[in-house]
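BUG: 3D viewer hangs when loading the predicted structure for this chain

Environment: internal workstation, default settings.
Expected: structure renders.
Actual: progress bar stalls at 90%.

Input used:
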Amino acid sequence: MSTRNNHDAGLAPGMAQTGEKPRNSLASKISSSYNRMFILCMSAGLFLMIIAFAFMNCAELVRGAKPWLDRIRKSGNIAEMVSAVNDAREQHFILLDEEDNILASSFYRNDTVSHFPVAFHRQDGITWMSLSERVDLPGGQRVRVLVFFNASTFLTKLAVTAILAVLIFSVSLVAVWFRGRMVTRKTFGVIDQLISTANSISSQNLNVRLNVSDTSDELHEMALTFNRMMDRLEKAYEKQNQFVSDASHELRTPISVIQGYARMLERWGKDDKDILQEGISAINKEAVNMQELVEKLLFIARNDRDTLLLVRERFSLSDMMEELVKETRMLNTGHAIKSEISPDIAMYGDHARIKQALRIFADNALKYTPVNGAVTFGLYLENGYAVAVVEDTGIGIPEKDLPRIFDRFYRVDTARDRHSGGHGLGLSIARIIILRHGGRIKIASREGEGTRFSVYLPLGDEPEERRSSEEG
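Structure tokens produced before the viewer hung:
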């Protein structure tokens, strides 16, 4: 881990290095948002409920006075209206002319006349509500009828209803606030745990994982995704450490040899030509070996950084395999070199890299096949792929080692020394080259019977834009 990451691990979640104030948590924002929506909806609902309650009660009062109002309205003149008002003993009316002079009254108080359509009056401990209605008579006369209702009971019911509504609203708000905050906090607890876990991770505890037993839905998937990401990071970190360790070990050996021969030459090689020649040869050999190792490491590093360039062109894979067979026979290793190569098979790719990969398979076949054994090269077409085969009759690969033979610095036989076993990077490089060309490798091996590497390479086509430019 870098110094920056170690430093960041000490910061609280939501804090930035620039000294910003802590932001509200996502759980608090969601809880506040739902609370606001609840308050708005509940307030509107209670307000409409109270309005509806008042309207229904007013309608009930008006419905009781409707028969008398209809009789007053149907009167043909003022005298009949006065008579109808005076006869109304179950309801309270006041009849007014256009100048608001009282013409008739069945209400015990005549000083409560109001000019408003709806008015409230407090008389003798009773709250009265008055409704005003204008009536046009034949001859252009106009009068006004005031209807009085005892509103004390109605207002008491309305007040009790309002108090109960406010009480229910308050209790519901408190319950929703506490419950919503608790549920939201619990639901988003995995996020808090993720933040805390991420802040606590360093190179010494990459094995830390989130607990997913109490999560569900998208948060469960997020926790699993985080754990899978950490699995990949841990494996990559372990591979990197192993790679650095193995590379250091491989480089330490030739450096130690060179230093040893240098000290020997310094002490005795100046006067002894045999020692001098031996030292120069050994140093040169180790330098070449170290150069090869460094080139392989650089190749792998470029691939890991995705900066490995392939010079692609159309070439004859059949001709390249024939060249490989010819060069192998020229080595005169005491092996029988056979070939079964189909003609006129071409592909689009990096000629040099493909040959390098196949040469690696050929070198391994020669290295682990006893003298008088056979190495066979093959090439044929299968389902749109060119299949290059390198098969030997050598010692084979143990089944337990097959999954790891492409691992970097991995040697099947740990008893082999570095001179006969190489650096353990050849098959890794071959695999990188084949995968970069969109191919795949199949292995068939049995101890004591030999190994068969089958390389499937897509024939491919030259990019359309490149063909068009060359034809133009």
